[in-house]
Amino acid sequence: MNRDHTGVTATGLTLQIQQPGPIPLDASLDCEPGTVLALVGPSGSGKTTVLRSIAGLYRPARGRIACAGKVWLDSEVGLCLSPQARRVGMVFQDYALMPHLSAIDNVQLALTHLPRRARRERALTLLQRVHLQGVGQRRPARLSGGQRQRIAVARALARDPVLLLLDEPFSAVDQVTRRKLRAELVELTATLAIPIVLVTHDLDEATLLAQRMTVVHAGSTLQSGSPDEVLRRPQQALVARVMDQPNLFEGIIEAQRPPQHQSHGETLLRWRDWRLQCRYQAGFAVGERVRWMIPAESLILHRRQRPSRGERENPVNGVAHGVLGCGGVQRVSIEVGAGAPLHMDLPPHVVQRNALARGVAVTVSLLAADIHLMPWSASAALRPGHRSNAVVRNDRGPT
Fold it and tell me: What is the DSSP code (8-state) at residue 132?
């Protein structure tokens, strides 16, 4: 399989774009065929501008975009293909359907490359593929939001695209419909051998649908990787903050003990009055000031009268400050002295069994393997409770 100078297969998508303004951009990404890449970041971060640049609806000042072995944009030679020449299927958050046309006619709008006599049969096949049998003659006003979005997906696929772009595709539907559409999209994308780029500010959506994730902030791409890697191993504190990681703190490296023989090694971190054992993380000097984080699900609640071996790992005492959320997960905040509280995620039955409420004394352990260190940066100032630069988690209770 041929690869270009970026190392990505020639059938995949590669992008590098820059401009100082009016919309600042400094973005790069790649996406292999058959892969869903989620662009995540807060509202106004530049995600949609990047998507529009890929589609040819926006022309950045400098850069190069290539897909399916063809260059779409190359500012050095003045090349910029029109949207029609890029064979992109695009699904918008507001459906963008023609209200005076039926469902089948909306799909047929994208089938002009086929002979007229073949368009209706192809449109019916696409509607069936998105589970819309029997509604072909209905106009959008007579369809639910979920049905309208399915039509939009069918129309995007009608062009036989070499790339599928999804711009906040489920933001206009209710929570129940959103879950159904997500499940259908997982099933659909598994059958598509083309790159798929999803723009979303919903972290749950990104982790459910995507195999890769790119974090966008102020027009710049900060980090790319698997969703688990980006969430649990952010390269800088700004990424952790944008990813809505609640446990983001400062500390001092107290000791570095590299792996030896049967030992995996460890890094010792001074945080407030605690000395935390962490997995060994090279590249930090003793005495260095660092940022560190631990996912909310990586805190273990000590069960009263029933200590376990794992609970002896970095035990921290505190007082429950509040319990938020309902349903599958509840967010418990724990005051552990001056500064921002610790946060942990627990199932409701655990909260109830341990009678967790405001003012209750608790002990938690911080799993050493999940404490992640990052360089200290003044530009990523920690502001407890501040969420304007964070993505959201719609299905987890607290948002």
Answer: -
User: Both tokens of residue 395?
Assistant: 């299905």
Average pLDDT of 304-320?
74
Summary mean pLDDT of the chain = 87
Q: Would you state the pLDDT for residue 306? A: 61
First to last CA, the chain: 43
pLDDT of residue 304: 67
Question: Could you give phi then psi for residue 30, rounded to 5 degrees?
Answer: -145, 155
Query: Within a 10 A sphere around the Cβ of 55, how many other Cβ atoms?
Result: 19
Contact 292, 374 (CB under 8 A): yes
pLDDT tens across 330-339, in order? 899 999 987 7
Go through the domains of the chain in sequence order and give each one's CATH number. 13-232 (3.40.50.300), 246-296+314-378 (no CATH)
User: How big is the CA angle at 68 (ends 65 and 71), to the nearest 5 degrees?
Assistant: 35
Among residues 71, 59, 84, 55, which one has the least CA distance to residue 14? 71
pTM of the model: 0.86
Radius of gyration of the chain (CA): 24
* 224-249 CB burial, b ≥16 within 10 A, e <16: beebeebbbbbbbbbbbbbbbbbbbb
Query: How much of the chain is helix, strand and coil, in % rounded to 5?
Result: 25, 30, 45
Q: Exposed (0-12), middle (13-18) or buried (19+): which is 205, by Cβ within 10 Å?
A: buried
CA distance 135 to 152: 14
Q: How many alpha carbons lie under 13 Å from residue 324 in its C-beta half-sphere?
A: 12
Q: Phi/psi of residue 19, each to 5°?
A: -170, 145
Report how far residue 128's alpha carbon sits from residue 135's, in angstroms, rounded to the nearest whole number: 10
* Residues 6 or more apart whose Cβ sits within 8 Å of residue 376: 237, 250, 288, 289, 290, 291
Q: How many CB atoms lie within 10 A of CB 324?
A: 12
What sign for the dihedral angle of Cα 15, 391, 385, 275?
negative
Mean predicted confidence (pLDDT) in 253-260? 93
List phi, psi (to 5°) of 125: -65, -40
Integer angstrom CA distances of residue 355 from 70, 289, 350, 387, 396? 61, 37, 8, 29, 21
Taking the C-alpha atoms of residue 200 and residue 295, their distance in angstroms, rounded to an integer, is: 21
Tens of pLDDT, residue by residue over 178-195, are 888 889 889 888 889 999
